[in-house]
Amino acid sequence: MSAPVPGSEAWLRLGREEAIDPDRPIIDPHHHLWLAGTPGAPWPAGRPAYLLGDLWGDTNSGHNLVKTVFIECRAAARPDGPDHLKPVGETEFVARIALASRDGGGGAVIAGIVAHADLRGGPTLDEALDAHAEAGGGLFKGIRHSGARDPHPEHLSIPGRGAEGLYADPAFRAGVARLGERGLSYDTWHYHHQNPAFAALARAVPGTTMVIDHFGTPLGVGPYAGQRDAIFLQWQRDVAAIAQCPNVVAKLGGMAMPDNGFGWDKRDRPASSDELVDAQAAWYHHMIDCFGPERCMFESNFPVDRRSLAYGTYWNAMKKIAARYSPAAQQAMFHDTAARVYRL
Fold first, then answer.
1. d(CA 30, CA 167)
2. Cβ of 45: how many Cβ atoms within 10 Å?
3. Where does the Amidohydrolase-related domain lie (predicted)?
């Protein structure tokens, strides 16, 4: 019999853990949804579906997940029409699933949608934002237009599609500023070496709430393999600089992707919560020290991080990491920061 495939239910069952502090209310501010077979690394043969039943299968793993926020992943674009309105198809797709999540099925409620739009759109941007707002039915909270770009995409299982110099582009900065004017947030995903460029963006557009996803994605594969200690030292300095911008909040999670280089996605069993804590706690504590709990929120990044560990395992690890902080700090990181930033 062949070994279970990493990320599969059979593989994840090998690492299931009993939930710690199961009554604590949690908002998961970062997950995706998509149909089966749509292109998407790190599933080169076509990623398996991740829909409401799959999400509930994870959120009902023993922890008290009360709400979630969907983050864009180019899952269901409109097949035709103007380019600037094609991403609205994803909001329409997720809004239907979110409605079903409120119909008493017993799982976490999808309470927010962070959609995609090209923030360089200039005169067409407001039309796109209006269309997302209409399609979202009150769930549209902000935009993610990622800046992730690396000179070695051939080594990455999830290579970013960000344009060269995106964060410094005047048209892009104008679009980010427009989000703030409309009361919307800006999420981004980029790699660790782009943290200084992001800090410059945050300083240039202080009126928009910005969310940095996945710690700024410290890479650990290709030319970055074996460089974790040096990357960590530079990352510490860069994160401290970003935290000086009061308009930035941080998502803590999403660091079990294959490109982070921990190798859990290549094993015959998933990572345990203790392994995650041992490998990554220093990154979490530095981020919390810099931003403060009121500007931090734990995030699952599922199902992408499902390639490394089970959903309940991630939350057990967060509860172990959070144990040193006050009850109020824990309440912020597990629930209140996400509720405030995404207006849930």
1. 22
2. 6
3. 27-344
